Amino acid sequence: MLLIVKRGVTRDEVEALIREIQRFGFRPHVSEGEETTLIGAVGSSPTPEVMEHFRSLPAVEDVVPISKPYKLASREVKPTPTVLAFPTGQTGGGHFMVAAGPCSVESREQILTAARFVKRHGAQMLRGGAFKPRTSPYAFQGLGEMGLELLAEARAETGLPVVTEVTRPDLVERVAEQADVLQVGARNAQNFALLSEVGQAGKPVLLKRGLSMTLEEFLMAAEYVLAAGNPRVILVERGIRTFERATRFTLDVSAVPVLKSWTHLPVWVDPSHAAGKRAWVLPLALAGVAAGADGLIVEAHPHPEQARSDAAQQLPEPLFATLMQRVRALRAALEPATGEATLAG
């Protein structure tokens, strides 16, 4: 249920209301606007008697049920967009970020070279896989611990925060020691034990949509992270499995405006995994930007033809530079007053 707090209520009265919510076994989630304070009481469905009890309290203007099954992710609980801030920029609420780098960390030279050129062309976050879940058990699975150390070295040199995937609950603590953002990939998007664990790790989480997930299922997956106490979640549309085989997956561009109308969380697009071929990454990236995405996560490699994973879809430096130029131009056209500024944070 959602409690609408009366105007003019003191901080002490709000705190007392929060304690009362907790006494009934609900988890309070406070959203303070310029004129109205809302408190979501999240938990099991309240009985009419419980709702009437809270409605009768002097600090409460009204009590309304939360209709969405994804309580904390819903705009009913938090009507304003969530904005996540990093040293290099922000995402959400009109702010835009680009994360870029290789699919996998393969060597010191490779990740440092990639980090340098993606930063040079305007990326604000470095991506790279240290632990790689692969369809084939015989494919390259990443460098593991060494990959984490190389990512940390690249961050120290470039200043770019690092996002890398965590594949198992028992790896969360170790990956969180090095990463600035924990990625949960499409194959683990409904690994609820992993989602709960990353929710307790104290780091922002980048959650990719599963291959066959509905948008409601996607938000319910995010709810596991939020319910564990972590409000810093980025949703990523990365293409879903359909009957079409021309592309690796089918980028659901409509997911961007739909999600942004349903949730306060930032929504990004991953054009690389949707396309599967580097020639199509740029148009899909621009489609995501035009649809209103809050960011992109793009694969870029110094020598894509030598990449040990996803070689066909990774961008070399010249193509990545072109992508960044086109993204800036499109954002400037969509938001003439702020497009250039928000891409830089």
From TrEMBL:
GO terms for molecular function: 3-deoxy-7-phosphoheptulonate synthase activity; aldehyde-lyase activity. Residues 91-316 form the DAHP synthetase I/KDSA domain. The keyword Transferase applies. Its EC number is 2.5.1.54. GO terms for biological process: aromatic amino acid family biosynthetic process. InterPro entries: Aldolase_TIM, Class-I_DAHP_synthase, DAHP1/KDSA, DAHP_snth_FXD, DAHP_syn_2. It holds the Pfam family DAHP_synth_1. Residues 1-68 form the DAHP synthase ferredoxin-like domain. Keywords: Transferase. The keyword Transferase applies. NCBIfam families: DAHP_synth_Bsub, PRK08673.1, PRK12595.1. PANTHER family: PHOSPHO-2-DEHYDRO-3-DEOXYHEPTONATE ALDOLASE. This is Phospho-2-dehydro-3-deoxyheptonate aldolase. The lineage of its organism: Bacteria, Thermotogati, Deinococcota, Deinococci, Thermales.
